[in-house]
Amino acid sequence: LKMSWFWFYLPLHVFTAACLCHSIKSPTASSQQSFKTNLFNIYRSLILADGKETTVHLLKDIPKRYYFVLEEGRALAPFTITVTPCDVPIEWSILVHRASASFPGKAAPGDHDTQETSKSQKAPSMVSTIFNYKGNSVETYMGMSSHSALYMLEFLSTERDTHVTVYLTTDTTSGHLYPELPMDPRIDVVGIGHTTVTLTWKHSPSVLQHKENIQYCLLVNEKHNYKSLCAAETAIRSSGMKLPPTLALSLSPYLLEPQQVMILSNRELSIINKASTGEVRQICMGTRNTYTVPNLSPSTQYYFDVFVVNLLTNASAAYTGTFARTLEEPEPKVMELKDGKVIQVVLDGKEQKFYNLQYQAMHKKIQFTFQLCRGQIRVHITKNGKTVASENISGLRYFSLKGKLLDTYLVQLRSTEESNSSVKVQVSSHFHKPLFPLLPESLKIKSFSKLRTCSSVTIAWLGTQEESKYCIYKKKIEEDQVWMELQSADRCSGPESRHKSEKVLCKYFYDINLQRAVTTEIIKGLDAGTLYLFDIYLFGPSGIPIRYHSKVVKTRKKC
């Protein structure tokens, strides 16, 4: 590389600093040579490496230049330059400085200083721009390089600080750093559902040639498409999420941040990045070129980008992104409630959807009754579109509401557990005819450990001020059945679901004084060292039973 070519390209601050350092000593031949050597060392860091990807950081409105020349001894050679913007649009150009016949470095006859001045004046006229681009797409320039030419790449960002990657190569025989895209790089949307979108794309030639080293990665978000994997990484980071060093490759769970969720199933790796600006999903699915994106939100527009990634070089190429809007969720079915009628609703815990009930009031005062049979549920009640009650339900719950004739009430029920839940619902305007019996303060059954024998146990429970019927049932169970029996119990089922042999007795009692509304019962004829499950059913005037909480008691093994 001829040192005389540098003078035209020196940035002012580098040139000034070098001159100040040089002016300290007299301009001897050795100091002049040292000055030129120092300048060359400065610029050596700005010479692009052949066959390697270089990251270039740009400051706003400050151009940055990189250089490259052909190897000595090669007259002409093809070369390619690929520039990948990682954020905002940038401007970049390729300029070439070609030497004239008398310019390779030998001085013509005459005064040496005059000749140097003449050459420095001619230099600008020998610079030409061979390529210029402005935008944020990945662009590749292909050309022929000459050993008598110096090439300069100039980059400029006018929006904000950013970075780009640059790949220069003169070797066209050893394959591609970047995976190849097919002739048609579009992503096709072949199916749209309420919560899914199915995509397909044509195979990359690189996948067909080097299947074990190539994979496809899909990026899903709600903002816009990305033209490179580098741009996607930058956008996700700027939104407040931290990413592993490489989006597609560094998918180790040890590198995940707290706001990332990794899912691995069926040879498919997914990372969900959560931030205030939305959710970004990354799915790497090997070499499959058809994929159905699950768990999307209804009536939402999503943007899809597919990247083909070289696992050996960490380089990637982007297909042309696409977008699709999921279908609107169908209007929920609404069931009409009739005054005084009891219905039982089973709620799917997996889908977590609301079950809708509607009632038009025929009186100003009404009462909703909910009896939880299994699981846990959320109840939300609106009157003419305005919320009047919303809470989780356990056991038996009443809502007494006032309004106007023909007010419309909408009841929404949802399971709060992953397992199914069920509940009985009634709405009535007849307060004097209660559906359920008057309940005690607690539905717990108490057992007395000191009163246990090898063949009997003593239990107690609370009653009410209203004379009611109480029926006791028992059932033998094993140790490993206790949890399942207690969890799966249907609290709405009555004695009709029990075997006749399980019935112990029925009794009536009440007490005007609630402090004394307690009864006990000795259950005899039991086996020693055996676990028993006890249930008590309370019957009111309507005949609908209320089941107390089951109690497990074990008789003594030795007496």
Overview of this structure, please?
This protein has 559 residues and is mostly beta strands. It folds into four domains: 37-99 and 125-169, Sandwich (Jelly Rolls), CATH 2.60.120.510; 176-242 and 278-330, Sandwich (Immunoglobulin-like), CATH 2.60.40; 334-428, Jelly Rolls (Sandwich), CATH 2.60.120; 445-554, Immunoglobulins (Immunoglobulin-like, Sandwich). The protein has six helices and 35 strands. The strands form eight sheets. Strands 11, 12, 13, 14, 16, 17 and 18 form a seven-stranded antiparallel sheet that branches. Strands 19-21-26-23-24 form a five-stranded mixed sheet, with no helix packed on it. Strands 30, 31, 33, 34 and 35 form a five-stranded antiparallel sheet that branches. Residues 1-27, 101-125 and 242-267 have low confidence and may be disordered. Keywords: Glycoprotein, Neurogenesis, Repeat, Secreted, Signal. One of its GO terms (molecular function) is heparin binding. Residues 232-329 form the Fibronectin type-III domain. It is found in: Secreted.
Question: How is the secondary structure organized here?
Answer:
Layout: H1 12-22, H2 29-44, E1 53-58, E2 64-68, E3 76-85, E4 90-98, H3 112-122, E5 127-135, E6 139-146, E7 149-156, E8 162-169, E9 187-192, E10 197-201, H4 205-209, E11 214-221, H5 229-238, E12 260-265, E13 268-275, E14 278-284, E15 290-293, E16 301-310, E17 316-318, E18 322-325, E19 334-336, E20 342-347, E21 355-360, E22 365-374, E23 377-383, E24 386-393, E25 396-402, E26 408-415, E27 421-428, E28 446-447, E29 457-462, E30 468-477, H6 482-488, E31 503-509, E32 518-523, E33 531-539, E34 545-547, E35 551-554
Parallel strand pairs: 19-21
Antiparallel strand pairs: 1-8, 2-7, 3-6, 3-8, 4-5, 4-7, 9-10, 10-15, 11-14, 11-16, 12-13, 13-14, 16-17, 16-18, 20-27, 21-26, 22-25, 22-27, 23-24, 23-26, 28-29, 29-32, 30-31, 30-33, 33-34, 33-35
